[in-house]
Amino acid sequence: MTAFLLLGVFSVCVAIGTPIGTSMCLASICTLFTTGMGFAMVPYNYYASLSKFLLLAIPFFILAGNIMEKANISEKLINFAQSFVGHIKGGLGMVCVIVACFFAAISGSGPATVAALGSIVIPAMIAVGYKPGDASALMATAGGIGIIIPPSISFVVYTSLVGISTGTQFMAGVVPGLVMGAALVAASLWVTRKSDLKRLTKASAKVRALAFKDAFWGLMMPVIILGGIYGGIFTPTEAAAVAAVYGLFVGVCIYRTLRARELLAVVIDSGRQAGAIMWNMGNAGLMAWVMSVSGISATITHFLESVVNGHTLVFLLIANILVLIAGCFIDGNSIMYIFVPIFMPIATALGVDLYHLGVVLVMNVAIGQVTPPVGCNLFVACGIGGIQVADIVRPVVPYIIASAIALLIVTLVPGVSTLLPALLG
What we know:
Blueprint: H1 2-15, H2 20-35, H3 42-50, H4 57-70, H5 73-85, H6 91-107, H7 110-127, H8 132-143, H9 153-162, H10 166-191, H11 205-230, H12 236-254, H13 260-293, H14 296-308, H15 312-327, H16 332-350, H17 354-368, H18 376-385, H19 390-412, H20 415-424
């Protein structure tokens, strides 16, 4: 009865357009009130969910990404990639994915990646012959790489819940992110195989060298962030703060594109984004606690254990299906709070590598960012492309399939996730 009440109120709230975080809050409060469990633990759960030093990395990474966006680093990265592959048929589609991989190593957020790159890439793709729906669909899906290739806000949330090394989890996401990028490039070339696309003039070695020089400071940011973490110089939270300071230095002193009045707007916008994420995470933590104390989580875990029956592959496939479905309605960080406590006991009992599990879950979340009705990347890309969500639903299907194939490869071959941590660890 408690499960039906909790999920019923949540579903009704989402159906009438209530924000996801508020829906989780209302569902939890209604359940606590109806069952007589009381509200004494509510403030404690908000505090317990958010008062973790590691989670300070989230606002800093958001700030760093926004600073680098305002510093026009996205434009410089696009020019750099375009100078190498822009002359190939479908080259701008490749540029879209390649630059998304680069910017992913700066922002750690899917929507931020789409917003930073889409305003430049989508109009450029349309200008050479891409349909607006195809260009927006590819940008929206490529933006999902932003939470797979480190630094990743979703990985920060996951490791804070599981209690494993964030740096090692970051390493585990590099190769899977590149695998998804390769799958999206292949899908883009297949989708546009019969299209009459214009090709850009092949850049000379001098132009490529100048493009590299112009993008150098932006390319150095992931080197500083990841090199510092893996080299033991600073923690992921400290790395996020360093990234923000570095971005400020580049924007003000090197590129000189960031003005003082713009900086205030960047800080306010970053605070707004971080606040929204923390609101969702706090409510997801409360909902997860209600599910735990009411026995819902334990019931689901026992049911899954009986279905899995000791088969690791069956567990991973079921986890994929559940999170893919949840991703259509819930944001990725909330998914972590709700599903990780359910999956962890099963994964531990089966001997599933927790870093591999983290990559699988986050790849599902990345796909969820482009699946209606709550695909946040879709809405950002549609706004930039000047189209309706209905116009992007069909074009995005090939890219979702390509992403799902990449996910299946990573799921079936754990070494894709664990190879780099094993080599560098």
